[in-house]
Amino acid sequence: MISRSLKFICNIFMEDLSMNSRKVKKFLLVFTMLFTFSVLCSGCMQNDEQAAKAVTQKYFNSVKSGDVDGAIKCFTPAFQEQYAALVAIGGQMSEYFFDMDGSDLLGGLMSYANQNAYKDCKFTADEVSFTNDSHDRATVHVTISGAGGDIPSETSVIVVKYDGKWYIEQ
């Protein structure tokens, strides 16, 4: 497609020999700048789409494997702080009431439950729809195959870009 466009433009210049080299250079400079700009813009969009899919895919892979810490790291930093505080409070309460460290009890239970529930599922983050003009917020569609029972065949996740990195919004 691009080579056809370039051939067409070259043919126009070859046919019109009356154009001086200054006009040709100016046109080629403008054309090159516009082409470069369009490639860069599409590259940025592509990278945002890939990054939004990647964090979503990482989250579901972590959930499937029972990696609670990996799943939590996919959420926004604010959520991660709230989760850490909850775990710390849970650990302090279990130590106070039961004389044992229970800070990892919640993670262990979640890990076991998720490994069993999703062991046969395959999660695929397959489509990104940006929800604003600045492209820092999107909905990622996820297809779930191999699911049975109460697990749906598809879902969607809202992701946000924060400090240049994509996260799942709680």
Description:
The protein has helices at residues 2-15, 21-65, 68-72, 77-98, 105-117; strands at 122-130, 137-145, 154-162, 165-168. Among the domains are: 63-119, no CATH class; 120-170, no CATH class. Strand 3 and strand 4 (165-168) form a beta hairpin. By secondary structure, the chain is α+β, with helices and mostly antiparallel strands. A 4-stranded antiparallel sheet has the order 1-2-3-4, with helices on one face. It holds the Pfam family DUF4878. This is DUF4878 domain-containing protein. Residues 47-168 form the DUF4878 domain. It comes from Lachnoanaerobaculum umeaense.
Estimated helix fraction: 55-70%
Low-confidence stretches: 33-45
The number of strands is: 4
Distance between the termini: 43 Å
Mean pLDDT across all amino acids: 74
Largest beta sheet: strand ordering: 1-2-3-4
How many helical stretches?
A: 5
Domain DUF4878: 47-168
InterPro entries: DUF4878, NTF2-like_dom_sf
Protein name: DUF4878 domain-containing protein
